[in-house]
Amino acid sequence: MREPADSAGVTTGGIVRRCVCPGSFDPVTNGHLDVVERAAGVFDDVVVAVLVNVAKKGLFDLDERIEILRDACSHLRNVRIASFEGLLVDFARQNEISVVIRGLRAMTDFEHELSMAQMNHRLTGLETFFVATNPEYSYLSSSLVKEVASYGGDVSGLVPKQVQERLRGRFEDGRSNSR
Ligand code: ADP
Fold first, then answer.
1. What's the CA-to-centroid distance between 178 and ligand 1, angstroms?
2. Does 175 participate in catalysis according to the annotation?
3. Of all atoms in ligand 1, which is nearest to the CA of residue 138?
4. Mean pLDDT confidence for 106-127
5. Helices (DSSP H) in 24-87: which residue ranges?
6. Residue 117 CA, ligand 1 centroid: distance in Å
7. Residue 105 annotated to the active site
8. Most buried residue among 39, 48, 120, 125 by CB atoms closer than 10 A?
9. Which domains does the chain have, with CATH numbers?
10. Residue 118, by phi and psi: left (phi above 0), alpha (psi -120 to 50) or beta?
11. Distance between terminal CA atoms of the chain?
């Protein structure tokens, strides 16, 4: 991909190395952020893309997820936040992205990730690079964080402070309403 300096103003000898980190990010965890930070250390331009899934209502709506991600990634100059609906390969093509970054936690992630990567490659030649999770976060998922927080468990150190506060607000309201 050859082009002049883009909005982020970063090029490598005229070639912008751009990748996408797609996901639901409902909500973003420190495991996600570790993957994004590591991608930002390798690629010139990193697009964190929030999947809009009309069939699945999350705990946080799209605007909140984007706002949280913007705040959590504000220290990374070459990272920007976007959202997409439909096929990732279409989003990638429209944004001139040739590499997808996915985090791999355990063998349980592997089967699904492998078939998705192979399908994306077959569809448009989109490549997938896997980042091995930081062992500190290998058990961490958005759904587990939500479950623990819903019962009042401590999720500090697992999610950004802003997420922790939003989760507390969300679930405290729920618990006091059900009393
Ligand atoms: P999806 O619904 O697409 O799996 P997620 O928001 O759950 O969306 O995850 C987005 C990406 O982040 C995936 O590649 C996933 O494997 C990765 N990921 C999630 N949690 C972690 C973690 N704790 N460590 C490393 N990667 C992770």
1. 32
2. no
3. 23
4. 94
5. 30-40, 62-72
6. 14
7. yes
8. 48
9. 18-139 (3.40.50.620)
10. alpha
11. 58
